[in-house]
Amino acid sequence: MSLPFIDLKSQYAALKPSIDARIQAVLDHGQFIMGPEVQELEQKLAAYVGVKHCITVASGTEALLIALMALDLQPGDEVITTPFTFAATAEVIVLLGGVPVFVDIEPDSCNIDARLIEAAITPRTRAIMPVSLYGQVADMDAINEIAARHGDIPVIEDAAQSFGATYRSRRTDHATTPRRSCGLSTWGATSFFPSKPLGCYGDGGALFTNNDTLAKAAREIRVHGQSQRYTHTRVGVGGRMDTLQCAVVLGKLERFDWEVAQRLRLGARYQQLLADLPLQGLAVREDRDCVWAQFTVQVDQREAVVAALKAAGIPTAIHYPKPLHRQAAYADRCRVPAPLPHAETAATRVMSLPMSPDLTEAQQDQVVEALRQALAQGAATGSVTASASAAHSAEAAADRTA
Length: 402
Known about the structure:
Elements: H1 8-29, H2 36-49, E1 53-57, H3 60-70, E2 78-81, H4 88-95, E3 99-102, E4 125-129, H5 140-149, E5 156-158, E6 170-171, E7 176-177, E8 187-191, E9 205-209, H6 212-221, E10 226-228, E11 231-232, H7 243-253, H8 256-274, E12 280-281, E13 295-298, H9 302-311, H10 341-349, E14 350-353, H11 361-380, H12 386-401
Parallel strand pairs: 2-3, 2-4, 5-8
Antiparallel strand pairs: 1-9, 6-7, 8-9, 10-11, 12-13, 13-14
Helix pairs in contact: 1-7, 2-7, 3-4, 3-6, 8-11, 9-11
């Protein structure tokens, strides 16, 4: 029997009493739009991230859109971001008439290369939107410093895949506390799509900020720009998160700390088990962790490896097979100030393996053994070689020290 790529059934079985009770409460009170669970979730998420404001919204895409609308993005304004991400990152910029400006990624982490951002800034730059890909936060301090040097350009962390991840702990007089994804910049935007580290049972998302003015704008924008009922003070959208979906996330929060710990443990175990195979794993920086929204590796002759794993009952996914500057919808609507070789290469080599907090070690062993056999088969036919993988690793190391 094929393994699940993401095991949501086991998660629900473990949380069934809490989730069912939360859903039933909503059915009983009947406030399906902006019910009490919405405010409760916002308060709990803001406290978790460590910011003043959380605004729940209809999806992760809506979170990015509302963040840009709150910043008053205008046609022709530029937003610097990565081409190696889901389409929503560029989609929201283009929807508002803006121009995505793509800079390359780090070849070993697949996150945006902060060192390339400054050269892409122009007088039209209105925001910088790094993506915390695969569950690891981008180098937010470096990005924020660049933004500050250029007139405090707003920074929006697209944290759709990294909720729960930490970055460079903060020292206080009494303790060291983690700095969490979504609380590291002007805006943090995340998704509660079911496959995300913290997911609901449909669409949902949230925005995070310490800025009172932006928070007020976002709350109005998500309800059609209303400051009060039928008083439209700005252009808005129908961007509310349903009460039922907030209830599901509240139920899942009960064991979220355990799930993050499991993701960290299973990710580390995957890395250990795969260390001797001819592939390139994702580099996790020493000053942060990765919650592994996807456990992604890079392999040569990906199609052959994927086919062999499928035959062995192991599902895979590709995040992402074509960078956004190569997509027909965005090719003529973006600006590419410099070549993007690492994004181009990663798109041909990335492959994600089964990953979820309820993945068992036996299942993980099954995945690794099937991958080992697929790579060995490819090596025997000359399609996958350890030397090719070593060359990619050497290129990544050289790039990091350049």
